[in-house]
Amino acid sequence: MRLKSFPGGLHPPDNKQFTAHKAIVDCPLPAELVIPLSQHIGAPADACVKVGDLVAKGEVVGQARGFVSVPVHASTSGAVVAVEPRPHPAGKPLPAVVIKPDGEDRWIDGLAGIPAEEQDDESLRDRIRAAGIVGLGGATFPTHVKLTPPGDKPIDTLILNGVECEPYLTADHRLMLENPERIVDGITILQRLLGVRRTLLGIEANKPDAIAVMTKACAGTSIEVVALAVKYPQGAEKQLILALIGKEVPSGGLPMDVGVVVQNVGTAAAVADAVRHGRPLVERIATVSGPAIANPQNLRVRIGTPLSHLVAVCGGAKGELAKIIMGGPMMGSAQLGLEAPVTRGTSGLLLFGPGQFPRAPEGPCIRCGRCVRACPAHILPTAIAACARLDRFDEAEGFDAMDCIECGCCTYTCPAAIPLVQAIRQAKAAILAKRRKG
Amino acid sequence: MLASILSLGGIGLLAALALGLAARKFAVEVDPRELAILEVLSGANCGACGYPGCGAYAKAVAGGTADPTLCTPGGAGTVAQIAHILGVEATAAEPQVAVVRCQGDNDRAKLKYHYLGIYDCTAAQRIADGPKSCPGGCLGLGTCARVCPFGAIEMTAAGLAVISREKCTGCRKCIAACPRQVIAMAPLRATVHVLCNSQDKGALVRKYCQVGCIACQICHKTVPAAYVIENSLARVVYEHQEEAAAAVAKCPTRCIRDFAEGYPEGSRFSAPTCPTTAGRAA
Ligand code: SF4
Ligand code: SF4
Ligand code: SF4
Ligand code: SF4
């Protein structure tokens, strides 16, 4: 049978063998937790604790500001020792609440699950929002917003993303193997909130064990598990929708324009925790891997754990570090060092030594067209990048620069090593700035 | 033979007649003053006046909707000529030059990461706020030098933008292009400047730059009228420019420079012979 997929994309070596077979391990408490107030797309939270306050695990330390915002919680019990700017994965110091753990790891009182069946939709959504749940695939878009589609956009299909197409990362894979029931539980809650007709769970065919486990767990429910071709970026929202139901999200549109909502499997599990146990999102699963880490592992880690602690738990770094990436190697963000903490969007931490992340010097475009063939958004990366570098942003807009999903396929495949995505991002930023001006 | 001469000639005559009529019917009135003004403008089409090119500005001035003193590249001479054409009084504003307020090139200021991307300051600034540890320092990738219509900006080998006081016409294009607000306008007569743009506290500045302002107040104590310290950064009070030079040698980090003595290290520009009148070669 031909596996479902989308046109474009490519096959980077997946390098998942380092951690795919390793069960998730609880990451021990670090000496200090640095909980950034800016951890999701949208307005950052406002700190609501001060130095000296004692907080319990799950207590709100940052209040949501605006609709597209969620609160931030303490991920263990202890004392607040600082509320100040601290290194952030974005590469600059940003406001954070620093907690010194008391070692008891005591949950806040009064956490209780109410059976989802006894709650109305509104209180379920409030609960999901209060639990601070955002898209855990890495995009960190507040989940309650996606669960509140405008009335004129009926949603008929819910798609669960179990693809995990980024090389190295195995966090979602392990979660599907180890906690399928939590995922299924979360999916049923999402199904009810959206009132969908159809629910699909897409998993790449390189995870046959996860497909088997999820198929079994979904037996008797309306969830269809679908094996997908192994291809990057199969897990990108628009590509996933095209592969699974053959609908193309219009240029400039959102999945809800074709009646679809996409959620990551990790997000579904977090929804189940929030509704069944009243637990806020204080931890996530992250893969620590790469050629320069002694003992690659999948860790269940508290939000706010410094990256240096993750490295220490995984046996330390092997030799000198040349590149540190938070997230996957294709779309993750390079880090200045190991000072930044784990946030809700941290799906992984990858370490590379000198020469393990090769980068050739840039040459002229040889018009080979490989970037065009690889581009899953069907735009012309080389043309847009060329316009961007001449500051001809109107022309770049005409070439549909805004449709770029920044997957990195073009840059990855370019034999001339042209930083295509960076140039396209320049164009996108300039176009957005112009639109904002009106 | 004859027929073809006649017919071609006939077509020619008809076309000439049509063109002649059209020229009368569709003639566009051009204000002769507009043409005269266009003649005296600098012709650089730099946009310093705020209009899309010299032609648009000439039209606006002739139409009375624009101030006649806006052509900075033209300087006082152009303003006087326009005033004469319009028969009004107008004097040029004090001539200004752009100054890069930083001397922290790659040899003297620390980098927080090794940038390998697109050779452009705006692109670099988008990645973790730029590779330079100092949040205000010059990134040295030459975005300003590429937009300057007058070739007034040079990049030193160690990665620092330096602006020629002779070539700069004060059009401000570089200021709009710089993602770090390192460049500022200053009166041309001012030769003494604090070349630093970091608002961090002194102890932090010392960690990342050898030539940054540490707000030690020594310049202010030496010549109180000529220096103010705001947000941990010293600034010359241009009204007291003449006295400012006395503090240049006193600055412990050497971040005050008198352009009359020379340009920042690594620059090939030479100090103007008479700094206050050079510049605008009228
Ligand atoms: S892949 Fe690179 S070399 Fe090939 S066409 Fe695209 S930009 Fe040019
Ligand atoms: S002055 Fe600004 S634009 Fe010019 S090189 Fe420095 S940072 Fe770049
Ligand atoms: S240095 Fe700046 S202000 Fe001066 S002429 Fe060049 S772009 Fe214009
Ligand atoms: S401290 Fe001042 S001189 Fe040094 S890099 Fe920053 S702005 Fe430039």
User: How do the SSEs of chain A run, as a string of H and E?
Assistant: EEEEEEEEHHEHHEHEHEHEEHEEEHHHHH
Weakly predicted, low-confidence segments of chain A: none
- Class of the domain at 117-277 in chain A, according to the CATH hierarchy? Alpha Beta
CATH architecture of the domain at 117-277 in chain A: 3-Layer(aba) Sandwich
Apparent shape of chain B:
elongated
DSSP helix fraction of chain B: 25-40%
Mean pLDDT of chain A: 93
Overview of the molecule:
The complex is a heterodimer of chains A (438) and B (282). In chain A, the strands form four sheets. In chain A, strands 1-14-13-17-15-16 form a six-stranded mixed sheet, sandwiched between helices. A four-stranded antiparallel sheet of chain A has the order 2-8-7-4, with no helix packed on it. The longest helix of chain A is centred in the last third of the chain and has 18 residues. Among the domains of chain A are: 161 residues, NADH-ubiquinone oxidoreductase 51kDa subunit (Rossmann fold, 3-Layer(aba) Sandwich); 67 residues, no CATH class. The model of chain A has no long low-confidence stretch (mean pLDDT 93). Chain A is built from 13 helices and 17 strands. Chain B is of the alpha+beta class. The chains are: A alpha/beta (438), B alpha+beta (282). At the A-B interface, α13 of A face loops of B. The structure holds iron/sulfur cluster (4 copies). The site of one iron/sulfur cluster has 14 residues of chain A, from α9.
